[in-house]
Write a structure and sequence with these properties.
By secondary structure, the protein is mainly α. It has a single domain, classed as Orthogonal Bundle (ABC transporter involved in vitamin B12 uptake, BtuC). The chain has 15 helices and no strands. The chain has helices at 2-5, 11-36, 40-49, 51-59, 64-82, 90-110, 115-118, 120-124, 132-151, 153-161, 163-168, 173-195, 197-214, 218-243, 247-270. Helix 5 packs antiparallel against helix 6 (90-110), helix 9 runs antiparallel to helix 12 and helix 13 runs parallel beside helix 15 (247-270). The longest helix is centred in the first third of the chain and has 26 residues, at 11-36.
């Protein structure tokens, strides 16, 4: 049991573990909508599209997460605007905003002298560098996002799987879809400190995809996905501590291992 308690003797590990669990659960819950709606590309695009906000916040010496949040909301609403009423397909709108925002971010970052050191934790995550204020910010945003998902659970369910019923019930489908995009954008922002831009999409997709192999019902899928996300965060962080590996990578690799186990179990069961 010493190996289990030793890392917890350090306050930075305690904060990192709490942040990882919160982000793991949040990404897993929101990831169920991403997987079921076939929006896996959105998570990756959103993660990279927030780079301009990060760069501008850095130039202004502001909070990088706030800058990332503003950029994410703008990108999400832009995607909703361009794809409104089928004017442009959603995946096309995502591709346009992804390319434009990423290019702008690269242009801004490349103009900085010390970006390689100062912004590396945004790209790859630095969960062990989570401060008390960062932890409160992550917990607060996560609570708001999960509360919103709970309040609009039925509405999100209807617009995701039965647009005809949504129109019959006169639900504000466009508003709800934009709200979902904003929630996904904020989820990516929250996950930056833990796994970074490069791996944020993986935490959205992998636990949810694993749960999808085990059940087709949304609520159980959310619970299974959240459990896998939390376990991946805990195991991944311990592996990072003992093997001196970047925490974001070990968390995602652990989630991938769960996916492979579920896939093999599914294949074995179907034989």
């Amino acid at each position: 049991m010493i190996w289990l308690l030793e890392p917890l003797a350090y306050q930075f590990m305690q904060r990192g573990l709490l942040a990882s669990i919160i982000v793991g659960v949040l990404c897993a819950v929101m990831g169920t909508y991403v997987v079921l709606r076939g929006m896996a590309f959105l998570g990756d695009a959103m993660a990279h599209a927030i780079l301009p906000g990060v760069a501008i916040a850095y130039l202004l010496q502001g909070n990088l997460l706030v800058g990332a949040g503003v950029a994410a909301v703008i990108v999400a609403l832009s995607i909703g605007l361009f794809s409104r009423e089928g004017t442009v397909k959603e995946d096309t709108a995502i591709g346009i905003m992804f390319a434009a925002a990423l290019s702008l971010g690269v242009a801004l970052i490349s103009s900085m002298q010390t970006y390689a050191v100062d912004l590396s934790h945004i790209l790859f995550g630095n969960v062990l560098g989570v401060s008390v204020s960062d932890l409160w910010l992550i917990a607060g945003l996560s609570f708001i996002i999960l509360l919103t998902v709970g309040l609009f659970y039925k509405q999100f369910l209807v617009i995701s799987f039965d647009p005809v019923l949504a129109a019959t019930l006169r639900l504000p489908a466009e508003l709800l879809r934009n709200l979902m995009l904003v929630l996904l954008a904020l989820t990516v922002v929250v996950s930056l400190q833990t796994v970074g831009v490069s791996l944020a999409a993986a935490m959205l997709v992998t636990p949810a995809a694993t749960a999808y192999l085990l059940t087709r019902r949304l609520w159980p899928m959310m619970l299974i996905s959240a459990t896998i996300g939390a376990l991946s965060s805990i195991i991944g962080l311990y592996l990072s501590y003992y093997f001196n590996i970047v925490s974001g990578s070990t968390i995602v690799l652990t989630a991938t291992a769960f996916f492979l186990l579920a896939f093999l179990w599914k294949r074995t069961k179907s034989v």
